[in-house]
Amino acid sequence: MLLRDCIFKIVYYYSSVTKKSTEKFLRSPVMDMDFSKQEERLRDEIRTWLRENIPKDRRPLEGADVCAYDLSWQRKQYEGGWAGINWPSEYGGRGLSLIQQLIWYEEYANADAPDVGICFVGLNHGGPTLIYRGDEEQKGFHLPRILNGESIWCQGFSEPGAGSDLASLGTRGRIEGDEIVVNGHKIWTSYAQYADYQELLIRTDPEASKHKGLTWLICDMRSSGITVRPIRMMTGEHDFCEVFYEDVRIPLRNVVGELHDGWSVAMSTLSFERGTAFLADQVRLARTVDLLIDLAKDTVGPEGRRRIDDDTIVQSLSVLRAQVAGLRAMAYAGVSRIARTGLPGPEGSMIRLYLAQILQSAHQVGMEILGSRMLDFGYGQQGWVFDYLYHFASSIGGGTSEIQREIIGERVLGLPRGR
Amino acid sequence: MDLLPSSEQEQIITMAMDFMATEMPLERIKNGQADAPSSERWEAMAELGWFGITVHQDLGGVGYGLAEEALLFRAAGRFLAPVSTLATSLAARLMVTCGAEELLSRCLKGEVKIALAVPETKIDNERGRLSGRFRIIDGRGADFILFLSQDQAALCDGSLLGGCDEKSCLDPSASLHIIELNGAHPDLVDRQVASDLYAIGMILVAALAVGTAEAICEMAVTHAKDREQFGRPIGVFQAIKHPCADMAMRNEAAFSQMCYAALALDSCHNDAVRQAAAARYLAGHAGLTNARANIQIHGALGMTDEFNAHLHLKRAHLLDVLLPVPKGALL
Fold first, then answer.
1. Which among A138, A298, A375, B73 has the fewest CB atoms less than 10 Å away?
2. Which of A3, A31, A318 sits opposite B5 (nearest CB)?
3. How near does any CA of chain A get to the CA of B53, in Å?
4. How far apart are CA A281 and CA B277, in angstroms?
5. Interface touch A33/B57, C-beta < 8 Å
6. A172 pairs with which residues across the strands?
7. For residues A203 and A210, is the Cβ–Cβ distance under 8 A?
8. pLDDT bucket at B31, cuts 50 / 70 / 90
9. Is there a contact between B90 and B149 (Cβ–Cβ < 8 Å)?
């Protein structure tokens, strides 16, 4: 068979590319970097809306102010019809595709809109997990509240003794009538001090093997028996918390998925985190590299030259530009894959791993450009130094880079499991 | 927007892979013999449609886009296909823009083989004439030599190599000549299309590098599954598994970017050249980095001439100097 034997198909291919309207006649997807007319119209609409509605004042760092700020911005997006673009419309979403959600993220980052902040867990784990595994009552109650900025969610997975080995977690749930009584200790829970609900992973069957016998629960953070202790981070923020549970009673109807089947529910939560939650970050990162180039142009080094005239800085910035382009192409390929299969697969871990590497090297270059100016940092002071310190989290949170490599090695490449 | 190969493109990939596996298996490079394809094999490649894959059908080409061409070269990269395939495909485009129809038709029939010039310093091409010191890749039996920079694309007669001895090349699959030119006259020259042609060239070099980087990853993964130490396959150990995962990540980024850049260039997007440069950088880096890690994963076996790991390393170094990213192109 020769390449030219495919010519019939190719004529068909190019006619389909040039005439967008023939899309519906295609038997299979065609490689295409452009967005459809309808998608471009959506992009224009988003751009206009963002220009008119982005909060003018800067996002505060913590305290009650940050809650008020994040929630009112979320409510505004909801009222504008922009919350949950790819969520089902019966629960307050727009019922559009992941590609359309991606367009929102692109425009959102280009408009320098505020960080998603305390709404992250609800929008990116809790919500998607409920859509996929929740029952009608859970979806009907929680999804609209996540979208309209009424409720804040936090995550309760990690424990002092269960980090990368998440399935070894020891927080127990004892079933009593129609309730589960929880005792134990969770940690690294961002925004627990402000949250209304928590996605809580606990052990309900101590006899079963490690991965069996876990349950994924919706925990009301106002329940009695919960104590929250904020932990200060090296940036000065109090993002993280420890959460202690003493005879906390949670109704059985708050179980998501089946009782004792929490591991599979948690894995779908994490696949959303690895596969789609970081789409927004990759777009924002491209913007960060642009700002880094501006910083290098505006900063004069000790030899009296602009940092952008330094060959090593130029080389570092060029590499970052190439990597950011590659990351975007990878995200596009990832979105295309999810569009074909319906669910995020293990390939998302490659995006996650790459994102963490680039985020960290970009901020290292930022420190290099600043030179001695980087010393001018006080706890909680926002800017390049703050972000540099903060982004140590990118290779730890949501599964460490080592865990992402395990997933890639075993589930993408088919290497044998070591555990 | 969809950045994965379509089922039609998957067919092209399968077809190209089958062709390479039959016509140009890696075994052909063994015994330290540079790989100069016989005229029969060269004609078979032409017959496949290789050199005119993007040339319009009215001119005897296949009429595909750059994405399909990149997928073909990626398959070629896995088998360390001769650099002359790259030079010939690029030169065919130059023949189209220069209106050299007779030469083009011979080229598409597989009657013309073209070598690629690698400048040692910046190419001096004052008034269309070429001066400087060049390394010619795959010059053995070449009819023409392609000199490509961002501001000039030129094709010179292969007789420039007359009287010049062939040298041994780091990449044993390539033949190498070193020449000094002092105002040589090209047979075909074009300044208008040079920057476009250079960008296309960067994508095709990227494609060759992606192919080799992917072949390396598969080689490492296969070894990690088969080789046992401490009573277990070494792929169980994170010190082996994680470098393999890093290879896969680099390949995914480089391959996705290659597709994106090819589509961007074909549809004349305004940042297409930067996208091509990004693809060139990422793929080149993936090729080299994977090749080095692969030798470590194979241990002493990786150091031998008998095992293929070194061929990929040496190829990655050869690709590294072909049509490199121009300084500042990414900023």
1. A375
2. A31
3. 8
4. 23
5. no
6. A183, A203
7. no
8. low
9. no
Distance, CA of A280 to CA of B297 (rounded, Å): 35
Tokens of A324: 């950011």
List pLDDT tens digits, range A94-104. Answer: 999 888 988 99
Look up residue A57 and give its DSSP letter.
Answer: S
Output B161-169 pairs: Cβ under 8 A, ≥24 positions apart.
Answer: B161/B115, B161/B136, B166/B34, B166/B139, B166/B140, B169/B34, B169/B137, B169/B318
Looking at domain B194-320, which of 1.20.140.10, 3.90.1200.10, 3.40.50.410, 1.20.1070.10 is its CATH number? 1.20.140.10
Specify the CATH architecture of the domain A278-412.
Up-down Bundle (1.20)
Going by their DSSP bridges, the two strands B144-148 and A255-256 should be labelled as: unpaired
Q: Where in chain A is the domain with CATH 1.20.140.10?
A: 278-412
The ipTM (two decimal places) reads 0.95
Catalytic residue among A106, A199, A273, A347: A273
Indicate where chain A has its CATH 2.40.110.10 domain(s): 154-260
Residues of B in contact with A6 (CB under 8 A): 8, 11-12, 15
- Return the SS3 of A286: helix
- Name the segment(s) of chain A with CATH classification 1.10.540.10: 37-115
Q: Give the predicted TM-score (pTM) of the model.
A: 0.93
* Mean pLDDT on B281-306: 97
A107 catalytic residue (yes or no): no
- CATH numeric code, A37-115: 1.10.540.10
- Token reading at A389: 């310190």
**B249–A353 CB contact, under 8 Å:** yes
Q: Locate the domains of chain B by residue range.
A: 194-320
Q: How far apart are CA B102 and CA B92, in angstroms?
A: 11
CB-based contact (8 Å) between B65 and chain A? Answer: yes
Residue A227's H or E segment, with its range, is strand A226-231
Using one digit for the tens of pLDDT, what is the confidence trace for A147-200? Answer: 999 999 999 999 999 999 999 999 999 999 999 999 999 999 999 999 999 999
- B224 part of contact set with chain A, CB < 8 Å: yes
How far does CA A159 lie from the centroid of its chain?
Answer: 21
> Chain A residues with CB inside 8 Å of B259's CB?
31, 329, 333
Place of tokens 């023939």: A22
Q: What is the CATH number assigned to the segment(s) A154-260? A: 2.40.110.10
The pLDDT of residue A340 is 86
Give the type of residue at B43.
E
Answer yes or no: do B1 and A317 touch at CB < 8 A.
Answer: no
**Edge-to-edge strand list for the sheet holding B188-190:** B176-184, B130-137, B114-119, B144-148, B153-157, B188-190
Residue to test with chain A: of B89, B108, B225, B241, most A Cβ within 10 A? B241
Give pLDDT tens digits for B120-179. Answer: 988 888 888 999 999 999 999 999 999 999 999 999 999 999 989 999 999 999 999 999
